[in-house]
Amino acid sequence: MRTSEMLIPTLREVPAEAEVVSHKLLLRAGFIRKAASGVYTYLPLAQRVLRKIKNIVREEMDKQGGQELLMPIIQPAEMWLESGRWHVYGPELFRLKDRHNRDFCLGPTHEEVITLLMRGEIRSYKQMPQLLYQIQNKFRDERRPRFGLMRGREFIMKDLYSFDRDEAALDVSYQKMYEAYTNVFNRCGLKFRPVEADSGAIGGSTTHEFMVLAESGEAAILYCSQCDYAANVEKATSQPAAGLDPTKEQLALEEVSTPGQKTAEQVAAFFGVATSQIIKTMIYKTDKEFVAALVRGDRDVNEVKLLNTLGALNLELAEDADINRVTGAAAGYVGPVGLQNIRIVADPEVMAMVNAVAGANKTEAHFINVNPNRDFKPELVADIRLVKAGEPCPKCQAELLEARGIEVGQIFKLGTKYSEALGANFLDENGKEKPIVMGCYGIGISRTMAAAIEQNNDENGIIWPAAIAPFQAVVIPVSTKDAGQVQIAEQLYQELNQAGVETIIDDRAERPGVKFKDADLVGYPLRIVVGGKAVEEGVVEVRQRRSAATELIPVTEVKEQVKKLLTTL
């Protein structure tokens, strides 16, 4: 391709709407243009990158036995009502009506469609396993679309669904996809980490997220400094603090006036104790009830863990007025002792505390010498705390470290959640009817493109990994008025393309500085500059975008040297 013939509308100024690096650079380098909030047009350079990512994904899915199909974007509400998700999924679901006033949605995911398809096609255990996937646009009405392609309302996704006879067979399918995803992101040239995660609205038991490591990542992940343990903060666990000391005397419960002392830090200072001696009591409102969540004063509640523990659909901190009404005390003075008509969920660390301090459910008063089981008994004891860097690994007790990541893929063991709800059954070898065991596996294609930029950029622009770059090399004649330079540039352009190196020639009648800036902005891995020395001495300048390493290479050796360099980029 020739730059003069391509639509590459580069911008010198940073667009005001752009917040993160990938958004800024995708706009500036002429890859995307905004059509509406969270909705973008992919220009030719972006399409080339997306096609390469898709091809890598297809090859790895097919290698594991995946079969590509294509399902409808518009899905009838009946499917979602049958699975029970029509009212659960929430306002992110794009809903619409046809001319007959029938309800539909734009597909944010395709569990219902694929399960109902296979309900009609699978009859026997002999027809499994099946691995079916598609690459398609998805739609989610994000409350606040932001960060360009990182959190949009329309995006490109690969979703694969596995169908197996039992959990053991599902384990095999899950491991196949784990390996395939690892290969995909390795081939894309990305630094990433698979982490344990929460399954969210998709549901299921086991799930892993594949996180591209980048300082700008939305998600925090914790990983072990010694072993392979890694999890996002929503899922991370840690070795709990030391257990109950049976030799420590339990003192008598006592109420103390504490005017103006609300926070764990204030209360700890007032009593001259560590914040770890405070029982922090947080009141939450679910779709069914109010709940008191107890953690140590130096800990925070992990709301995802709490939501899953309760089996609730929604969870939010209670308003001050509600806290006063259900506990009889102002926020900051609530505690578990004597708390009536409200479910109490305690973290295991709370149950190991001796002579703790907690709110007295009376404004401006606290209890001292609070002891679990003696002074209160929670209905549930579960890990509901937010784990932080520096705590011990749950597997080997080494220190947990923190990094930022961008989720580009996630794999789920769904089990029989959808097959049971939608009646997708099969007959086993004994003729007994059983529900199909399922898994689902997604990769954000457009998000992977953005994540690659978040991980690979500098002050001059994008630095594409060679495997997914829109072009692997750009040939730039310094002067388009010099016939000798133009001839050599055209020769190299043709030779490289014929050798399988995707090359673009910048044949514009622009100043060299403009061409160089655009080459860095777009992020071509290699830049081949044909200047006066090419005509006079038969050598050209080859510059690597990532390292900025430059060398003079004879024109006759450019093809082989470029091919060799690309294997390292």
TrEMBL record:
The keyword tRNA-binding does not apply. Consists of three domains: the N-terminal catalytic domain, the editing domain and the C-terminal anticodon-binding domain. It catalyses: tRNA(Pro) + L-proline + ATP = L-prolyl-tRNA(Pro) + AMP + diphosphate. Gene3D superfamilies: Anticodon-binding domain, Bira Bifunctional Protein, Domain 2. GO terms for molecular function: aminoacyl-tRNA deacylase activity; ATP binding; catalytic activity, acting on a protein; proline-tRNA ligase activity; transferase activity. Residues 33-465 form the Aminoacyl-transfer RNA synthetases class-II family profile domain. It is an enzyme of class 6 (ligase). Its EC number is 6.1.1.15. It is found in: Cytoplasm. HAMAP family: Pro_tRNA_synth_type1. It comes from the Bacteria. Catalyzes the attachment of proline to tRNA(Pro) in a two-step reaction: proline is first activated by ATP to form Pro-AMP and then transferred to the acceptor end of tRNA(Pro). As ProRS can inadvertently accommodate and process non-cognate amino acids such as alanine and cysteine, to avoid such errors it has two additional distinct editing activities against alanine. One activity is designated as 'pretransfer' editing and involves the tRNA(Pro)-independent hydrolysis of activated Ala-AMP. InterPro entries: aa-tRNA-synt_IIb (IPR002314), aa-tRNA-synth_II (IPR006195), aa-tRNA-synth_II/BPL/LPL (IPR045864), Anticodon-bd (IPR004154), Anticodon-bd_dom_sf (IPR036621), Pro-tRNA-ligase_IIa (IPR002316), Pro-tRNA-synth_IIa_bac-type (IPR004500), Pro-tRNA-Synthase_IIa_type1 (IPR023717). Pfam families: HGTP_anticodon (PF03129), tRNA-synt_2b (PF00587), tRNA_edit (PF04073). This is Proline--tRNA ligase. The gene is proS. NCBIfam families: PRK09194.1, proS_fam_II. GO terms for cellular component: cytosol. Transmembrane segments: none annotated. Homodimer. Keywords: Aminoacyl-tRNA synthetase, ATP-binding, Cytoplasm, Ligase, Nucleotide-binding, Protein biosynthesis. Belongs to the class-II aminoacyl-tRNA synthetase family. ProS type 1 subfamily.
